[in-house]
Design brief:
This protein is an alpha/beta fold and 484 residues long. It folds into two domains: 2-282, 3-Layer(aba) Sandwich (Rossmann fold); 286-483, N-(1-d-carboxylethyl)-l-norvaline Dehydrogenase, domain 2 (Orthogonal Bundle). Helix content is 45%, strand content 12%. The strands form four sheets. It has a five-stranded parallel beta sheet with strand order 6-3-2-7-8, with helices on both faces. Strands 5-4-11 form a three-stranded mixed beta sheet. A hairpin with a 5-residue loop joins strand 4 (82-87) and strand 5 (93-98). The protein is globular. The structure holds nicotinamide-adenine-dinucleotide.
Length: 484
Amino acid sequence: MTQLNTAGLNAVDIAVPAYDRTAVTPGIVHFGVGGFHRAHQAMYLDALMNDGKALDWGIVGVGVLPQDRRMYDVMSAQDHLYTLVIKHPDGTLEPRVIGSIVDYLFAPDSAEAVLDRLVDPATRIVSLTITEGGYHVNQVTGELDTSGLEADLEAGATPGSAFGFVVEALARRRAAGIPPFTVMSCDNIPGNGHVARKMLAAFARLKDPSLADHLENEVRFPNCMVDRITPVTTDADRDALSAAFGVEDGWPVVCEPFTQWVLEDDFGGVRPPYEEVGVQIVDDVEPYELMKLRLLNASHQALCYLGYLSGYRYAHEVCQDKLFVDFLLGYMTEEGTPTLPPVPGVDLDRYRHQLIERFANPEVKDTLARLCAESSDRIPKWLVPVIREQLAAGREIKRSALVVASWARYAEGTDELGEPIVVVDRLRDKLVERAQHNREDPLVFISDPDLFGDLASDARFVEQYTAALQSLHEIGARATLEAL
Ligand code: NAD
């Protein structure tokens, strides 16, 4: 058994960095070193470094939350090395030690060290995977929500939040005549660069309006679309790594084989040559985002309620059932895809089949309960726009209408065997209350303009939706799909 660290690298029998890590110098500061950053952006840099490139783009991780102390402890003990384990659908594990993270700072203990690193001219990119919550967006107004940022807004305060650090560092760089870094959000938020810019500028404006102007005028915020399913690491993952490969790693990362990163070429200066390791560098990320929302995300909704009602509990079970696969491909091909603008460089047919393969990977163990949760955030953003565009163009909507009906049926709160369904949604009470009247008033569920706009008054949609709902009630989900 070998403990993972620099000294142990020679002794492990899995792929390790091919480069001399002592020659790697920091160029990126990353906030939010969790599973996803380590499976995605750090992996791409590691691949470049293995080719002898980007050695001046080493990553310094920063954790700002109290719980990040654990990552600090593990990474420090391992010389910032960790194992990325790709889980193939046939059960094969493909491990590789990643070396692109060269340091990790725990901000609550080392705020000045974090600022020094951020202000250092060698830091040319500050990247973020701080989850949606880290952007402080008020979900109702879309404007900055300052709760949790009060301490950082006080004059002269030592920063505590990611926003506090980024803005203070930009102020210090400006004062010292050092050009600003590029802020690269890699969170799963449409228009992530736009959102980062808007929220950081609003925060900076509350501290110093001229700093906000500087940020808006001088700092680049590339948008990007990121994709790679990276579940939370479990003890079983740690045990499997040590049992199969003899590597003791305090916090390995597991992920699916697929990975995608579509990145807008909007950097303040030089950037790593990401395109040399498969990153798609583009002028406009939006078509790729729409592709992901309307094919990947909407398909998750297309499979989760119908799958659950049919008795399945995992996404891979559904996607190993031909009836469902045909339905999903039908949705994607006939309804989702016609609403997409051209997506340069992507073979959409291949992408659709790849999605089915990814969803069918039994190693990922994605639960339908997770996919069914917070539907009121998902269906209106991912599927309703497809329905609207298809209706406007006079094209097919029967599968999308069935997906909405399956949500309505799911929200009734009992499955086809009469077992209770735990509906998880911030609008749960309202949804369940409406859905329970589905049988006597078939339009009740979709008569909510906040969620569905005016779909309840579109005759074509209403016809398809009510027929689908009736069929779900009378013959159930599986037979409805068979009849489709
Ligand atoms: P994770 O829980 O492993 O890591 C999240 C990291 O963000 C932690 O370091 C945490 O401390 C930090 N963080 C959370 N809230 C913060 C805040 N308010 N301010 C500063 N830091 C904060 O999660 P993950 O799987 O790495 O996912 C992180 C993000 O990556 C997601 O929210 C999503 O936007 C994106 N992403 C994840 C996946 C995936 O499959 N896991 C796929 C695509 C994109």
